[in-house]
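debug: dumping io for the single-chain case to check the tokenizer round-trip. Nothing else runs in this session.
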Amino acid sequence: MDGGTGSADFSRLHRPELPGNVTDDYCYVDIALHSPGIWETNGNRSFLHFVLPRLQLQLAIIFILTQSLHLLLRRFHLPRLVSEILAGIILGPTILGQLPQVQAALFPREGDVYLDLLSKIGYIFFIFLCGVKMDPRTVLRTGIKAWTIGVLAVTIPYGPFLFGLLVPDGPPLGSTLVDRLETLVSGLLAPLLVTYCGMNVNLVELYDLRFIGTVWMVIGMCLLVKLVAIFVPAIICRVPLKDAAALAFTMSAQGVVQMSFYYYNAVNQTFDGETFSMLTISVLIQAAAANVIVKALYDYSRMYTGYQKRDIQHTAFHSELRVLSCGHRVDDVLAVRKILEASFPSRESPLAVYALHLVELAGRAHPQLIDHQLGQKSSGGTRTQKMIEVLYSFEQQFAGVVTVQQFTAMSLTKFMHHDICTVAFNKLASLIILPFHRKWNHQGKMILDSGSLRAINSDVLDMAPCSVSILIDRHKVRRNPSSTYNVGVTFFGGMDDREALAYARRMAQSPDVHLTVVRFVPWDIYAGDSQWDAVLDAEILKETRMQGTHQDNIVYKEERVKDGAETALLIHAMEEAFDLIMVGRRHKDDTPQLLGLSEWNDLPELGPVGDMLAAPDLSTPISVLVVQHQNVKGI
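debug: decoded output
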């Protein structure tokens, strides 16, 4: 599209002017490449006159600015692409160009050729990695709906992508390429192309406003056609209305590939500067708007909403208890097995265990959910096989009263919470048991603190269709073995504490489990919980005391405290007495027994009591089960 007066000169990118001398006999190019250093002098030239240090400074400025903008804008759920384009506009003639001396020093015209070359290399690697991470076999397994919508909405790309598809998936080649190149390409090289395109946007020198209006009219018509081309086939394929709209906006959003297309045409002068500037701004607007609209149409937090009570409190003693256990390591499975053994499966109250072994996807970006009961095998290696064998032996140990169904979920860590919630939703689980993100060795020293596993747990707590628990396991730090499994419950009141107590009462049916319930009572007995919560608390505590009159392995006692400091002293005193302490996650902010503990809560996903018992410097051989009751949504 050509018209008006160009606001950006792209012709200089074809034939960069390099300093040099030409004679009749020979020619040479004198490029100042390396600097002697900041503190060294080379005539009157600063270190910015040299190509390599100036390029390094330019990359550092671009990286810091894009990351800073992303940290700011992601609070508004805007994608990284918006931050990259805005960073380019800030560093281009629109803003930094108003300070010509600063721009000439940091981004001189003769240095554009190097940024241009790096951005093209970054785009090639980006497309190549997209092909490496994609499994072409999934295309053959898709249904008629995906074929219909995809064929009508997508064109066949843009050599490196096809070459990436030819790379074998998984280890060793595919996964190694992704591991080695993902951070460099996605974090620096690919964003460099988008930022560099933004640096060529000039919103100051706009001459032909009528022509600009025509450009925006064409952009709007193209967007409308693409939205309709996706939305209508989706509706014909009986996709729900909101999902069809979300799909249309998702597939219409533009990104790195479209920016490279616009940039290519601008360099070849198919587009003039004004057209390129408007197209770049349209990508920014579409990316931001699509993200906001899709989030409004497609609420992930309600994907697994259950309108039935899926918890332990409303699961009768003499009925099947369904538990979903999740594990990343063999240690996780060994720890959860101890909890399941203590759950006392019997013919009157059988136990159904759905074990989900979580394996991070390597190489291909296609997730898999493998059902081992169907004879499917995973590529998780010996680690996954050992996890399967641990629970298989548990099923054999309690044959007839325990059924175990095992799955392996291979996906990216940022999507693992969807796998967990999907299995829990489909299997009607009452409780999910998640492993804590910290691990300890035999000496009580912390050996693992995984931020990605912590993020998975937090997402599951927000989205789960049933009750959720996080198991903090220190089983390696063992005291002298005992035939009795000592379980303690801290009770302050509220739905989470009631759920923890309900699970502990089920465990107490086993003669090998000794249960102690400690109720922390405020000095002012009328403070704290609401009237309805107080009624429910009193009811379950009454049932516990009644159960204790018929069983000698249940002890109930009350401790009167005035604030969180006294509570902390009593809880620390419990650490030596029990193998497992069960606590509720959430409590009301005005709970007097916990006053002052919330300010020291480093791990909100555990609550104030769970956080105190999960301290990394705690070497006491105690395991903790932090319980959250099912999120109530329309129940």
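debug: round-trip ok. The CA atoms of residues 359 and 380 lie 7 Å apart.
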